[in-house]
Amino acid sequence: METVLIILELVLSIALTIMVVLQQSKGEGLGVIGGGGQLFFTKNKGLEAFLEKATTWVAAAFLLVSVLFAFV
What we know:
By secondary structure, the protein is mostly helical. Helix content is 60%, strand content 0%.
């Protein structure tokens, strides 16, 4: 069981890294702190929306597998 969790953790970490790298940069960075940023008012379309949702689910699965390590 531990081996399965380790392999799953590795696959999820690689997938999460790839998904984050594929996402388009918002371009603001820390500049949004000064105000005037349009970061929160743009809508994601198509591939961007899919990548954002998939990244959320993969990150949640990664967290779940990480927590399961505490019980194995």
